[in-house]
Design goal:
about 425 residues; 7-stranded mixed beta sheet; binds pyridoxal-5'-phosphate; Aspartate Aminotransferase, domain 2; 4-stranded mixed beta sheet
């Protein structure tokens, strides 16, 4: 059997891990079948426990901008590990990474490191509430901001894939403070703000959405949110956990030319180790403990291994700023190849792309929000996913996820991906 060892490992895992995994989307529930267990990875590819090789389009869900086991990051982590792995006391590394991040990203003076994107977003809204003295937040259907209670109201990807957009365990009390709008629908947001005068602390969004597939903002949407927030004293929070240090050195703020009041980071900023961060002006950050009254803490926050990995990653970006253009060009090349193959197949499709994020949706309807993205969560997607997997191409196992290209991908890898896709498309049936 093709996945013999992965299947055995999965059965074993299911005895001691709920659903056999530590994060739901890894379990393949949305696409069926058994998850492949990774043995090792390097560059753009990985090898599973049964010895098959794959071209990887998730790159650990985004962090690995330069591919797996990237030598500068590896060397930094190993060198630091020899000096101690955790202290619970300040280190110079934290300041170095903070200085570098603040110099790369527009509109932020200070940054707080945490251990995940979830923590970053959760803490950002606490600070926004503490700063404004208001309780409600607005989020968008299909945007994912981690699994803190306040965000599990129509969250994207994992939460949607598993049919629990409003998870049990999230109280009514929490849910009532999270107001829901549709992505790319500025009028809907205006109506919510009008109906809740003086009560909205923050509007949080993925400035380029990646957790309902890749859904870029339409012209005027984010500009409109910025104006509305400024007029109403609402903080505009960009969740750049996915887009930060991926779309540009300054993230989506730089690419879109719009200033956020607060920014959340994760993924690339940790270089593949667990790091999240949130950042804002010195004035807003002054409200955070120990400088101010809004509490936030972490035993492993600013962990030296994680800081070393993040530093090596951001330094690499600074020494090779063309990486973003290279990634965009590779993604455009993949887009073109996939689109030609899709056209020939006669299947209904949309390909959405922004920078190094791309997604294929099997629907004839343009995908610009959660409802239209959900149209592509259909049997075509499952056939596509499994066909690609068999052909040695690892895609996100959910119709609500973006692919993340990494710089280790070669044009030969991209050509091979398109060739596999073309043969898979030919076999797909409604
Ligand atoms: C991945 C992600 C998160 C959550 O980060 P974790 O590190 O998984 O907690 C939050 N927001 C966005 C936009 C993400 O893509």
């Amino acid at each position: 059997m093709r996945y013999e060892r992965s299947s055995a490992l999965f059965r074993e895992a299911c005895r001691v891990l709920p659903g056999g995994v530590n994060s739901p989307v890894r379990a393949f529930k949305a696409v069926g079948g058994t998850p492949v267990f990774v043995k090792e990875a390097a560059g753009a590819g990985f090898t599973d426990e049964d010895g098959h090789n794959y071209i990887d389009y998730i790159a650990s869900w985004g962090p690995l901008l330069f591919g797996h086991a990237f030598p500068p990051v590896l060397e930094a982590v190993v060198a630091q590990a020899r000096k101690g792995t955790s202290f619970g006391m300040p280190t110079a590394l934290e300041t170095q990474l903070a200085e570098l991040a603040v110099s790369m990203v527009p509109n932020i003076d200070k940054i707080r490191f945490v251990n995940s994107g979830t923590e970053a977003c959760m803490s950002a809204i606490r600070l926004a509430r503490g700063y404004t003295g208001r309780e409600k937040i607005i989020k968008f259907a299909g945007c994912y901001h981690g699994h803190a209670d306040a965000f599990l109201i129509q969250a994207g990807s994992g939460a949607v894939t598993f049919g629990s957009p409003n998870s049990p365990g999230v109280t009514q009390g929490t849910a009532k403070d999270t107001l829901l709008a549709n992505y790319n629908d500025l009028d809907g947001v205006r109506r919510l703000v009008e109906a809740n005068p003086g009560q909205i602390a923050a509007i949080i969004l993925e400035p380029v959405a990646g957790n309902m597939g890749c859904v870029p903002p339409v012209e005027g949407f984010i500009e409109g949110l910025r104006k509305l927030c400024t007029a109403e004293g609402i903080l505009l929070i960009f969740d750049e956990v996915m887009t930060g240090f991926r779309l540009a050195r300054g993230g989506a703020q730089e690419v879109l030319g719009i200033a956020a009041d607060m920014v959340a980071f994760g993924k690339v900023i940790g270089g593949g180790l667990p790091v999240g961060a949130f950042a804002a002006s010195a004035e807003i950050m002054a409200h955070l403990a120990p400088e101010g009254p809004v509490y936030q803490a972490g035993t492993l926050s600013g962990n030296p291994l994680a800081m070393s990995a993040g530093l090596a990653m951001l330094r690499q970006i600074e020494s090779d700023p063309e990486v973003f253009d290279r990634l965009s060009e590779k993604t455009a090349y993949l887009h073109q190849g996939l689109e030609e193959a899709l056209k020939q197949s006669g299947l209904p499709y949309q390909v959405n792309r922004f920078g190094s994020m791309i997604s294929v949706h099997f629907t004839a309807t343009p995908v610009r929000d959660f409802a239209t993205s959900a149209l592509g969560n259909n049997p075509y997607f499952k056939q596509y996913f499994h066909g690609m997997l068999e052909g040695g191409v690892y895609l996100p196992p959910s119709a609500f996820e973006s692919y993340f290209l990494n710089d280790a991908l070669s044009y030969a890898d991209l050509d091979q991906t398109v060739a596999v896709a073309a043969s898979v498309f030919r076999k797909m049936r409604a």
